[in-house]
Amino acid sequence: MDTFADLRRKARARLLTMHFESGVGHIGGNLSSIDMLLYLYHHVISRDDVFILSKGHSAGALYTALWSIGRLTDDDLRQFHRNGTRLSGHPPVKKIQEILFATGSLGHGLSLSAGVALGKRFRSEPGRVFCLLSDGEWNEGSTWEALIFSKHHRLESLCLIVDANGLQGFGTTQEVADLGSLAGKLQAFGLQTEEIDGHDIKAISAAFARDTPGPRAIVAHTKKGSGVSFMENKLEWHYLSMTPEQYRQALDEVNRA
Known about the structure:
Elements: H1 4-22, H2 27-44, E1 50-53, H3 59-68, H4 74-78, H5 109-122, E2 129-134, H6 141-152, E3 158-164, E4 167-168, E5 171-172, H7 173-177, H8 182-188, E6 192-197, H9 201-209, E7 216-221, H10 244-256
Parallel strand pairs: 1-2, 2-3, 3-7, 6-7
Antiparallel strand pairs: 4-5
Helix pairs in contact: 1-2, 1-3, 1-10, 2-3, 2-9, 5-6
C-alpha cells in the first residue's frame, strides 16, 4: 500500500504534467492545496459528505485528487482546459458528480457551503460539508456574510479550510489587505478554530480526526508552489505556465521528495 508520501509524489507529478501539457498557469495555488485535498479524499470524505472548492483556480488540484481515487482517468486529465472539455480551468457544474457548483468568482464558496449545510439540516440528511477557501477570499464581503450566517444558524456539519499561502493575485495578503490574524478573527466570530501546517500529514490528520461540531475552521499555513524550489512563495507562479526546462526540473524535484 502506498504511503501518503508516495501518494503526494504521484499526485504532484501528475498535476505538473497536466498543467504543462495544457500550458495553463495557477500552478502555485494548486501545489499549496493538493496535500489537504489528497488527505480529504483518501481519509475523510464519505459518501454522504459534500466538498466545495471555493478557490476555483485550484481546480487542477481537485481534478488530481479525484484522479487519485479513481474518479477521473488519465484520458480525462489530458483534456484539462481543452475546447469542449468537462475539466475546465475552474470547476464545472453538472459535469462531474462530485462537483456541485461552478466556482472561481472568489468569495462565493462559503455561501454555497452554508446553504448546502442548512439544506442538509432541513432534509435531515447525514453528512458533513467541507469548503476549501484561499486566504485572499477573506477580502470579499460575501465571505464574512456567509460566516455570520453559518454561526447564527449553528451549522454543525460545516467545516471550512483556509489554504493560507500568504499570496494572492497582486501581492502578499498583508500588502493587499492586511487582516492580521485570520484565525483570531474566526475565533472571535465563535468558530472552533485551529491553525496547522498544511503540508504536515500528521498535523492534517490530527485536525480532521477531531470531531468538533461546526461551524469550525482549519487555517492551514502553506507554501505557494510547495515542493518546487523555484516556485515556492513566488507571486509569479500565481500566473505563469512552465517552460519545458522548468517542467523537467519541477518533475525531478517532486519525484525525489
